[in-house]
Write a structure and sequence with these properties.
- By secondary structure, the protein is an all-alpha fold.
- It is 79% helix and 0% strand.
- α1 packs antiparallel against α7 and α6 packs antiparallel against α7.
- The termini are close together.
């Protein structure tokens, strides 16, 4: 039974990565030579895919929270995954409704504040997101200490996300960096989802052994 859960997890994750890659290639090919057309706009098709992946992350975190509660795990673990489910749900809403862009344009831009010289005025939300993510990373990495692949996917997700935030901080109008940024964001979301789904299937495997 345990080997079946492991195989199902591999199929799910491989299918998600292959599906996202094929979907991205299709979007770029269908608008060629303007490959960025469905990629970089805030309400683009790629933005829709990212919001779907963020919803999947929230659902995976909710599954881990539910398994932690059902298995009577430590309360800290239950709260951690519950908080992650809420956080990913909020990121999904931000992606679809462009909340941080509206906040910057309507309020923060007027302050003229810059965290770094090359950043646009009022561009504070994404760096705050990055700092919060790094703060949570320690707890997630420790939570996944017993699992190899979830930690690898988690580290990949953090790397992709930080690279995307770094590119976003320059606010370039060139389409190639913006395209790379969107691809990195998609890779980060897929990596976080993969890390949590690997953990879910590990938990289900443990349940099948003890059940």
């Amino acid at each position: 039974m345990s080997s079946k859960w492991r195989m199902i997890g591999k199929v799910w994750i491989a299918s998600a990565w292959c599906g996202a890659a094929l979907f991205t290639v299709f979007l770029m090919a269908s608008s060629w030579p303007r490959y960025w057309l469905y990629i970089i706009a805030e309400k683009s098709t790629m933005g829709w895919l990212q919001s779907v992946l963020l919803f999947a992350c929230a659902f995976a975190a909710a599954m881990l929270a539910s398994l932690a509660c059902a298995g009577e795990s430590a309360r800290q673990r239950q709260w951690l995954w519950s908080a992650m489910a809420v956080a990913f749900a909020m990121l999904m809403l931000d992606e679809r409704l462009m909340l941080h862009e509206r906040l910057r344009e309507r309020f923060l831009e007027r302050s003229g504040m810059k965290l770094l010289p090359w950043m646009a005025a009022g561009d504070l939300v994404m760096p705050i997101y990055a700092l919060c993510g790094l703060a949570v990373f320690y707890f997630l990495f420790r939570e996944m200490s017993a699992y190899r692949w979830p930690r690898i996917f988690l580290m990949a997700g953090v790397g992709f996300a930080l690279a995307a935030v770094a590119i976003d901080s320059y606010h370039t109008v060139a389409v190639l960096p913006q395209t790379v940024e969107e691809l990195l964001e998609t890779g980060a979301n897929l990596s976080f989802w993969s890390a949590m789904m690997k953990a879910v299937f590990h938990e289900l495997e443990n349940w099948s052994r003890t059940g």
